[in-house]
Amino acid sequence: MNVLVIGANGQIGKMLVEQLAQEGKHQVTAMIRKPEQADALKQLGANVVMGDLEGSVNDLAEAMKDHDAVVFTAGSGGSTGADKTLLIDLDGAVKTMEAAQQQGISRYILVSAFGADQREKWSDAIKPYYVAKHYADRALFASELNYTIIRPGGLKNEPGTGKIAVGTDLKPGSISREDVARVIAASLQEEKTYRMAFDLIAGDDLVEDALGKL
């Protein structure tokens, strides 16, 4: 497949681009907002295309042209305010869903947040972030896209183990960003993840085995 990674300049995005390029099963394109981000992603093995999540749906659809799958792992980041969280994590995500449907792209993977579906689990400190993730998830549920929603726990920068736990009622936990990228890559063509949403933390099962049990 030709896979477009939105948020490719982020930590998970870069790892995903590199993993997909090394696996060689899919062509990978990194959507970037700034031209100066291009060289580093090309060196990881990606093609690049320009796109802005605060731009129009039509422009985003143009960036998606000739792709078979979209991965949304973008985020406004912890240093921005609630306004940017709503513009990127919510409206930006929903616009990419609309753009994908406009282009006739079916496969769509969204990186959400652990417990985003359960309001009682939201942290007061970053409640706007959870609100954005919650309603982006709901927009994807309501779409005609063949979605997978991945809700990772606390993100760590340590090397991945390749062993995870997935489910819809897991106890809170953490996971390495490298393993999140692995799960995204493995989910692209794993039919057990189609039209599914699940929490993700470090665990005891190999990625392929865990996803196969969904």
Task: Give the key terms.
about 210 residues; nine-stranded mixed sheet; 7 helices; alpha/beta
What does this structure look like?
- It is a single chain.
- The chain is α/β, with parallel strands linked by helices.
- Helices cover 38% and strands 24% of the residues.
- It has seven helices and eleven strands.
- The chain has helices at 11-23, 38-43, 57-63, 82-103, 127-142, 177-187, 207-212; strands at residues 2-6, 27-32, 47-50, 69-72, 107-111, 146-152, 154-156, 163-167, 174-176, 196-202, 205-206.
- The strands form two sheets. A nine-stranded mixed sheet has the order 3-2-1-4-5-6-10-8-11, sandwiched between helices.
- Helix 1 (11-23) links the parallel strand 1 and strand 2 (27-32).
- Helix 3 packs across helix 4 (82-103).
- The two termini are 23 Å apart.
Layout: helices, strands, pairs:
Elements: E1 2-6, H1 11-23, E2 27-32, H2 38-43, E3 47-50, H3 57-63, E4 69-72, H4 82-103, E5 107-111, H5 127-142, E6 146-152, E7 154-156, E8 163-167, E9 174-176, H6 177-187, E10 196-202, E11 205-206, H7 207-212
Parallel strand pairs: 1-2, 1-4, 2-3, 4-5, 5-6, 6-10, 7-9
Antiparallel strand pairs: 8-10, 8-11
Pfam families: NAD_binding_10 (PF13460)
Protein name: SDR family oxidoreductase
Organism: Paenibacillus illinoisensis
